[in-house]
């Protein structure tokens, strides 16, 4: 039966939910807006036909933006604080470190300096460097302040959190500046003393995960996930309203195909992803990894028409995606490398098969994401519907009783991280988990 395909292609369930999310205002982790978004998502999953739709709350380190400033010479330069920056100030010489590659930090004396780095990497470099990795290289090398310069033009200062699991608030004040402000700082004030100020309200807060279920009441399950929070400076349409809208659309489609599900499908919209994967780490602490057949994590979908699935070295996940692509004669990109960012990772790092589902992109980094420009008019309902058709059938495929996708040994995951030059960066940011595990 293919009637469900027509129903998905004419559905407005996911897009309507996306509109509701972006119209809330701020969905910052721990905020009233994040709570409202979680409640709307819980209700949307229940309305779609999922059972046991509920919220599970947990404590987080709250952080609320109050103000930030860079003073250079007699000028004031526009900037925004990076979430979980300490409320602090620094006065020191500015050092423009360009791309901020690990070798750049090793070769430069940053003791007592304010360091500025770009948000991208050079064409010749073979892996993406996360903002937090650059931040903690700055901390390790004695910097007293951190300026993160967007590489995307358009007067768009970038946001994005600092901090670690053990120390949620970072060690030195950190701000984002636009490409244009960064160029001005580098041209006029490199080597000159500047002042950086961050003001923030820091204290305990509460976030929540949304859970709901479809299919038979088996112990084994397929997780279909997203994150419901977003940074406070924009609507968070791509990152990650679209992912949560996709989860709702998939629940609506799968409810109509519930007889096709041979394994439980659990929908989870996580809170507090943008401040360190807090919600998914909370879930992973008590989850039974052996009972999770696969994770389908939607973070970055709908921004381009072609799906890109990071498969983390799980051959069975790549085969399942190829099967769906062939079934529909529709391209799906698969990326076998590891991607240790977003809510699949607390599970994948311990060998649970997991996709990071997003759209293809030729850009380095997040594009409009983490800026004021992450708004809904850059997305199209058509793309959400097309991708929902492919992902609905993919989830049904993963939920088959005979769809055995082998878990990986965590030691093999760790070895791949080393081989792909990701391990050192994870150690710098405090994200390397393998030294902490008990036997």
Automatic annotation (TrEMBL):
Subcellular locations according to the entry: Endoplasmic reticulum; Golgi apparatus; Lysosome; Secreted
Entry's Gene Ontology BP terms: proteolysis
**Record's keyword terms, sorted:** Carboxypeptidase, Endoplasmic reticulum, Glycoprotein, Golgi apparatus, Hydrolase, Lysosome, Metal-binding, Metalloprotease, Protease, Secreted, Signal, Zinc, Zymogen
**What InterPro entries does UniProt report for this protein, alphabetically?**
CPQ, PA_dom_sf, PA_domain, Peptidase_M28
Q: Where is the Peptidase M28 domain?
A: 209-389
Q: Name one Pfam family in it.
A: PA
- Entry GO CC: extracellular region; lysosome
Stored SUPFAM superfamilies:
PA domain, Zn-dependent exopeptidases
Q: Where is the PA domain?
A: 91-185
Per the annotation, which location comes first and is thus the protein's main one?
endoplasmic reticulum
Which GO molecular function entries does the Swiss-Prot or TrEMBL record give?
Answer: carboxypeptidase activity; metal ion binding; metallodipeptidase activity
User: What is known about its subunit structure?
Assistant: Homodimer. The monomeric form is inactive while the homodimer is active.
Name of protein: Carboxypeptidase Q
What organism is this sequence from? Haloterrigena salifodinae
């Amino acid at each position: 039966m293919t009637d469900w395909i027509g129903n998905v292609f004419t559905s407005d369930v996911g897009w309507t939910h996306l509109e509701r999310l972006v119209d809330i205002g701020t969905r910052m982790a721990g905020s009233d807006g994040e709570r409202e978004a979680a409640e709307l998502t819980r209700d949307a999953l229940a309305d779609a036909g999922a059972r046991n739709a509920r919220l599970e709350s947990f404590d987080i380190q709250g952080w609320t933006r109050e103000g930030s400033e860079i003073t250079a010479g007699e000028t004031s330069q526009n900037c925004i604080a990076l979430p979980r920056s300490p409320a602090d100030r620094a006065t020191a010489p500015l050092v423009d470190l360009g791309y901020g590659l690990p070798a750049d930090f090793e070769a430069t004396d940053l003791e007592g300096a304010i360091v500025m780095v770009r948000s991208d990497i050079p064409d010749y470099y073979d892996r993406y460097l996360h903002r937090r990795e650059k931040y903690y290289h700055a901390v390790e090398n004695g910097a007293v302040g951190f300026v993160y310069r967007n590489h995307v033009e358009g007067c768009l200062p970038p946001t994005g959190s600092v901090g670690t699991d053990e120390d949620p608030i970072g060690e030195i004040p950190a701000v984002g500046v636009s490409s244009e402000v960064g160029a001005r700082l580098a041209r006029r004030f490199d080597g000159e003393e500047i002042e950086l100020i961050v003001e923030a309200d820091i204290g305990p807060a509460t976030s929540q995960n949304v859970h709901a279920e479809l299919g038979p009441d088996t112990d084994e399950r397929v997780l279909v996930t997203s994150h419901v929070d977003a940074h406070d400076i924009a609507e968070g349409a791509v990152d990650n309203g679209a992912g949560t809208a996709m989860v709702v659309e998939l629940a609506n489609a799968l409810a109509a195909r519930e007889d096709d599900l041979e394994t439980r499908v659990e929908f989870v919209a996580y809170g507090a992803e943008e401040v360190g994967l807090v919600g998914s780490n909370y879930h992973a602490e008590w989850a039974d990894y052996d009972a999770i057949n696969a994770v389908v994590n939607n973070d970055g979908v709908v921004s381009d028409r072609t799906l890109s699935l990071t498969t983390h070295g799980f051959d069975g996940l790549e085969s399942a995606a190829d099967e769906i692509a062939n079934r529909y004669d529709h391209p799906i990109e698969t990326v076998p490398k590891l991607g240790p960012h977003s809510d699949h990772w607390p599970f994948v790092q311990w060998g649970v098969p997991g996709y990071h589902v997003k759209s293809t992109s030729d850009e380095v980094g997040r594009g409009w994401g983490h800026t004021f420009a992450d708004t809904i008019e850059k997305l199209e309902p058509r793309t959400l519907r097309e991708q929902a058709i492919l992902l609905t059938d993919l989830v049904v495929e993963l939920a088959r009783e005979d769809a055995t996708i082998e878990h990986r040994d965590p030691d093999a995951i760790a070895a791949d991280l080393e081989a792909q030059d990701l391990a050192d960066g994870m150690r710098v940011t405090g994200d390397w988990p393998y030294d902490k595990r008990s036997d």
